[in-house]
Sequence to fold (314 residues):
Amino acid sequence: MATSAAGVPSIGVDIGGTKVLAAVVDEAGRVVDTETTATPGKGSGIDDATAEEVEDALVSVIGALTREHGRCTVGVAAAGFVDAVGERVRFAPHLPWRDEPLADRLTARLGHRVVGEVHVDNDANAALWAEVRFGAAGDAEHVVMITLGTGIGGALLLGGALHRGRNGMAGELGHMQVVPDGLPCECGGRGCWEQYCSGRALGRAAAAAGSRLSGPLLTEAAQSGDPAAVAAYDEVGRWLGVGAANVAAAVDPELVVVGGGVSAAGELLLGPARRALAESLVGAGFRDLPDLVGARLGPLAGVVGVADLARDML
Fold:
């Protein structure tokens, strides 16, 4: 007999470079409680952690919340390739998971504290779902999500449903080639989109324009009109629009939602992106262009989205 999700609290977990964030999320997408722990790593960071150590951290934060809120549905957002049924992390470049049966392992370790089974999803899928249910996407049924951080994450909503693809790997937009024989990428290729449109790309563009600033200080400088900082965002925004046009040519969305830390610059990034999208998209004068907007849920999108997905899976 199926278990009803009505009234059952749901926990979403997101694993970042410095912390693991878990949150209890209600059915309206509101975060009602959180628990954090440091991201495991013996030396320079999570690359030094074992799969068991990361798993221990997840069990710790989930356990703390279930002690307070009782049995919950549980979802985990992972930055990596997750299979289409939400069970295995096939590959996570910054986590020690290689074909890891994470859902089964966490479900077994958490036992009676979990209602149903743990659901695992890609972090960009989770962020897009949060924006669809509670944020910028509203009633749109064909949406592209682009998350700009150190690299680029992506996710697709087609016909009102998340599109994961045959292997669960749809939406890996950052590794589309936009410049043949271009800059080398950590994936082993050259000219990948994220080498021209990401946090790293923004830092290079700022340096090329004569600025030594980075991160929030660069954003503040651009918002104050600093020419080098504005030029950096203009360059990265242009590449955002070029890549968004490529994706739009493939899937014809009504909406492109841009999230991640780099998107905090707002119109400094989105304005140049809209112009480049209109200039680059094939047949732009004979079609309705997709709206390009900023995400609304910020750093909580991952936990909100994967908690809601876990509840839905029940």
